[in-house]
Amino acid sequence: MRRVEHVMGFPVSLRIDDDGDFEEAADAAFAWLREVDERFSPFRPDSEVSRLDRGELAGTSVSPDLAEVLALCEEYRLATGGAFDVRLPGRGLDPCAVVKGWSVQRAAELLSAAGARRFVLNAGGDVVASGGPWRVGVRHPEDADRLCAVLELTDGAVATSARYERGDHIIDGRTGRPATGLLSVTVVAPTLTEADSVATAAFALGAEGTAWAAARPGCEVFVVDAERSVLRTAGLPVAGEPSAAA
How far is residue 183's CA from residue 141's CA, in Å, rounded to a whole number? Predict the structure, then answer.
C-alpha cells in the first residue's frame, strides 16, 4: 500500500510492501501524527506546549508524552553543553526538533505492532525503515537536483539537518546566533528519535558537532561542513559498499 498526507507542515509518505490489509494500521499511524501536531505544536495557541509555555500548566499537569519529550530535550541540552536548547531567550518553548523524530518513530512502532514487517515511513525526508534493504538518498546541501550519498537501510532510521529548506533556523543556544559551521548533517541510528535529535544537536554544535555525533553509540554520520568538505564515519551504510561490520 501507498499513502501520502501533509502533517506537521511537511509531507509524510508511507509504503508497506507486506501482503495483507494494513489500512487500519495506517489510519492509526497518521491519526497519531495529527494528534501530535495538535498537542505539541508551538504554533497552535491551544496546544499543550503553548499552554505550558504560558504558565497555564503546572509541571505535574504535563502529559506523560510531553514529559518524555521534555526529558529528551534536556538530555541533549546537557550533552551539547547548551548548544541544543528548546528554551532560547526571547523565544517560546519549541521542542519540534525532538517531537518530529519521536512522533514518527512512534508511528512506525504502531505499524510494527499491527504486523507490518517491510515498510518505509518518510516524514519530510527523515526516514524510518523496516525489513529492507531500502535505499535512501541524501540531498546535496547546495543543489536540490543532486544527491551526495545513497544509503542502504534494513531496519533503522536516517535524518538530516541542513540549511537548505529553512535557512539559518537552527540556533546555537550557547551564543543565541544561527549555527553556520556545517551545511548538512545526516545521522543513521536505530530509531528516528535518536537520528533526528542527534542531527539537529550536531548541527547546533557547528564544527565540533561532527565528532560529537560520531561518538554517539549506534550512530553513523555523513557531514558536509561549511568548507564543503565531506566527513563520514566508517560504518555508514552507503549503498553498494560493504558496511564496517560486513
Answer: 6
* CB-count exposure of residue 154 (10 Å: 0-12, 13-18, 19+): exposed
Cα distances from 117 to residues 120, 194, 229, in angstroms, run: 10, 21, 37
Q: For residue 81, give Cα distances in angstroms to 6, 7, 21, 174.
A: 35, 32, 47, 8
pLDDT for 63 equals: 95
Rounded Cα distance between 11 and 8, Å, is 8
* Domains of the chain by start residue, with CATH: 2-232 (3.10.520.10)
51 touches 57 (CB < 8 A): yes
* Interval 67-121: pLDDT, tens: 999 999 999 999 999 999 999 998 999 999 999 999 999 999 999 999 999 999 9
Q: Is this prediction's pTM over 0.85?
A: yes
- CA pair distance 176, 170, nearest whole angstrom: 10
Q: Hey, is 137 helix, strand or coil?
A: strand
Provide the 3-class DSSP secondary structure of residue 236. coil
Where does 103-194 show beta strands of DSSP type E? 119-123, 126-130, 134-139, 147-153, 156-162, 171-172, 177-178, 182-189
